[in-house]
Amino acid sequence: MVLVDAHASKDGINDGAVDFRGNPVDKSRTGGWLAAGLILGTEFAERVCVMGISMNLVTYLVQDLHIPTAKSATIVTNFMGTLNLLGLLAGFLADAKLGRYLTVAIFASITALGVILLTLATTLPRMRPPQCSDYRRQHHQCIEANGSQLALLYAALYTIALGGGGIKSNVSGFGSDQFDTSDPKEEKAMIFFFNRFYFCISIGSLFAVTVLVYTQDNVGRGWGYGISAAAMVMAVAILLGGTPFYRFKMPRGSPLTVIWRVLFLAWRKRNIPYPSHPSLLNEYHNAKVSHTQKFMCLDKAAIIEDYYSASGNKDNPWIVSTVTQVEEVKMVIKLLPIWSTCILFWTVYSQMTTFTIEQATFMNRNIGSFIVPSGSFSVFLFISILLFTSINERIFVPFARRLTHNAQGITSLQRVGVGLIFAMVAMVVSAIVEKQRREAAVQQKTKISAFWLVPQFFLVGAGEAFAYVGQLEFFIREAPDRMKSMSTGLFLSTLAMGFFVSSLLVSLVGKATNKSWLRSNLNRGRLDNFYWMLAVLGVLNFLAFLVLAMKHQYRIQHYNSSNVNGENEQNDWNEGITSEIEMKEKVEREGGTLDHTLVM
What we know:
The protein is built from 19 helices and five strands. The chain is an all-alpha fold. It is globular and about 80 Å long.
């Protein structure tokens, strides 16, 4: 059963859905599984492209372009951070102006262009520096790629980031638009759509880190990225070809506009004195959210200026906000302290796509005569996520429910806390494994098995199974009723900031240690110290999280649950049973973005 916000309008056919000609939809000819299946192809292609690039890009930068390991890691994390951050921009454009279909079509085309450019950048010989022998590599005498050679690569990566962010923030919501939630049969079908959506992105990710990574390392980068480009072009063609079969929802405006407007008006009226009583604020008596005394500086946005009141402009949202709008912005601001403590988890996660992959290149990757590509070891991360998500739903949550007598098993912030603990332990294990690897390489001149990296992949994957769902559940639950899409925006921003913080830490550590910790030749560096530093930062962050979590008071919300007969029951959130998959579905139905493997 899927939990749906009782205060939100049903996002169904009666809610403004039209066909591609702008006419009311014919349910027998539009939407449903045919339309949803065509849309799923776009997400599959996006996963293949982004995962095939991010999980193996650092090896190309280090080995082929001779870029130092620390700088290569920064390039990858900046790319992934930008992709997630641009998802917010694309989501805003879709909500405010373009609509989901047009946004997905435009940004999918941009992604296809970016992957084609990347194929050229990695295929053309003049886009790479001269090859470097092992002797020169060990003595840091390789010629690094120059600016002109990197220009096309950067253009390709950030074109892909722009396109991927646009797809990420809209494709799942567009898929959910193909089902009428006022129809019990289509309501039930939507549940299976999100299960299949999750399955689709998982298969796309697994295909990318196995088949594509192997092709890139053993056949050629051009072939590997060429396959991704072909898949994206085909997905765009299929998406456009299915236009007559889709149901379309008109853009209704973005909640970001309300937030910016309140902040702008509060700043513009900063010198106006407060009214003698809050009841004098605009729409005080009609407010859907009770007025509070916190962040009173924002109340000035709801002050009705005499001039505009006399001229009849008090209904103009750019002249004065309502108390409801101001209080909703206050509620979002209250989420920011917890939001800030969620960032470091994704900083830890980003190491699995950069330094951990580079570690594998210095280890024994043989299975008999077969050499496992370094980037393919991230398959254990995906397996761990899928495994622990299933364990959480089927074993851990029911057990915790009996133990705590709480219908949810554990609260959303407790889930986040467990994820942060896993992240700390993962960094400790990473540091120990790297120390053993380096000592074996330097002192014994041997390579330990790369499968010693599996525990840290599994620990981070287990942490994501808790932290990912916990963060989403928290932001969905605590966001204002009319700003539910903000939940996904806040979540995406933690991902983006996590990658950017990783880039910042790499830069600061490089300067503080004179590049002695993070070196291209890991045997001459001290990567284990960097991991220990992240573990210590994880402990400090966890302590800050505990303080903030203990002070937080959950909102009491009510939700409707729809059964197959279309009957509605009023359930308190604290009495609802929310599984990991149900939480994913909830986000998508609110028009937001959810992609469990988007960060990988």
